[in-house]
Fold this protein.
Amino acid sequence: MTKKKLSLTYRFLRFIGLNYSEEEYGQVSLWDVIKRVLKTYRDGFLLKFVMNSWLLSPILPRKVRPWVLKKVGCHVGKDIFVGDSVVVDAGHADHIFIDDHAHIAGGVRLLCHQRDLSHYCVGDDYAKLGYRLGKIHLCKGSLVGMETFVMPGVTIGEGAIVGAGSLVTRDIPAWTIAAGRPAKVVKHIPERKETIEE
């Protein structure tokens, strides 16, 4: 695509309110935008109407919601639990990895992108800042408590528990309990001691 055509495409996209920067998205064609809009509508329908359908309520947490997360692009393992009103970063769902037996309680937010503030200075326009993308990995058997925010680039280790209402900005080690805003490890989960029968 020539520079002139590219600039016409970008001018048109900006005119209709879609402000894609070349630095972030590369060469974006009108067809790319149409495909993304159609996917957004489909994903929006699944996330809004299927994720919390009262009609499907008996099978929502372990069957329907994991299926919806797969459909929108998340990498989902076996036997996961997804509570009600969970919000995923649908535009970057391919950055979310949920291992077998992980639990996501109600109201959890999984965010894979945020504004990159590393070069933000006085007088800069916040709206022109780029985004920082990061993968979220919920390891095997982990639990993310109700109303918790998980930020980009975070791994919650195997068997780890994150308390309700936490803000997870850093990795949580395996077999620990973390809580708070920001979440910090408050306890290490002990190994089970063998009892010797007499």
